């Protein structure tokens, strides 16, 4: 797998996005700190009851391509590296994949949930865009 093509798209206090290339497929990793306890609704695919933690991070991987299981596993691993600094005993995270989707449209939809800014309005003068 080739992950050496990584570029930050934006960074807010509670979120950031990175463009990654895996096997020549462009993917966008969007990490959003929910700043709320984990809930069962965060894991709709689990049948067993989850242990709630103080905070939940939601990760979104968006690509106009179809990913195979090995690529998804690699993306999960690299996401874990991005989140390795978190206090795992107090924070949980999971990933949602958006395959065969418009990267820009999904990004705009997710940004609109946590800021009033439009993607075109982001200020790249500073390290953080908020």
Summarize the structure.
The protein is α+β, with helices and mostly antiparallel strands. Helices cover 20% and strands 30% of the residues.
What attributes does this structure have?
5-stranded mixed sheet, 2 helices, alpha+beta, 5 strands, 130 residues
Explain this structure.
Helix content is 20%, strand content 30%. It has helices at 69-82, 103-114, and strands spanning 6-11, 15-22, 25-33, 55-62, 91-98. Strands 1-2-3-4-5 form a five-stranded mixed β-sheet, sandwiched between helices. Strand 2 and strand 3 (25-33) form a beta hairpin. The chain is globular.
Structural class: alpha+beta
- The backbone outline, from C-alpha atoms, is globular
Amount of helix: 10-25%
Low-confidence stretches: none
Query: Ends: how far apart?
Result: 33 Å
Biggest β-sheet description: 5 strands, mixed
Proportion of residues in extended strands:
25-35%
Note the total helix count. Answer: 2
The overall average pLDDT, rounded, is 86
Q: In order across it, which strands form the biggest sheet?
A: 1-2-3-4-5
Number of strands: 5
> SSE string, helix = H, strand = E?
EEEEHEH
The value of Rg in angstroms is: 15 Å
Task: Chart the SSEs and their pairings.
Layout: E1 6-11, E2 15-22, E3 25-33, E4 55-62, H1 69-82, E5 91-98, H2 103-114
Parallel strand pairs: 4-5
Antiparallel strand pairs: 1-2, 2-3, 3-4
């Amino acid at each position: 797998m080739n992950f050496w093509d990584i570029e930050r798209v934006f960074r807010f206090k509670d979120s950031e996005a990175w463009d990654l290339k895996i096997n020549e497929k462009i993917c966008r990793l969007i990490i959003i700190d929910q700043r709320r306890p984990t809930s069962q609704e965060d894991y709709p695919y689990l049948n067993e009851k989850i242990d709630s933690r103080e905070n939940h991070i939601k990760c979104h991987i968006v690509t106009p391509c179809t990913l195979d299981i090995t690529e998804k596993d690699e993306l999960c691993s690299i996401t874990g590296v991005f989140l390795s600094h978190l206090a795992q005993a107090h924070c949980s995270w999971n990933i949602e994949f958006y395959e065969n989707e418009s990267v820009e449209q999904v990004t705009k939809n997710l940004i609109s949930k946590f800021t009033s800014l439009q993607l075109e309005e982001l200020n790249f003068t500073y390290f953080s865009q908020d």
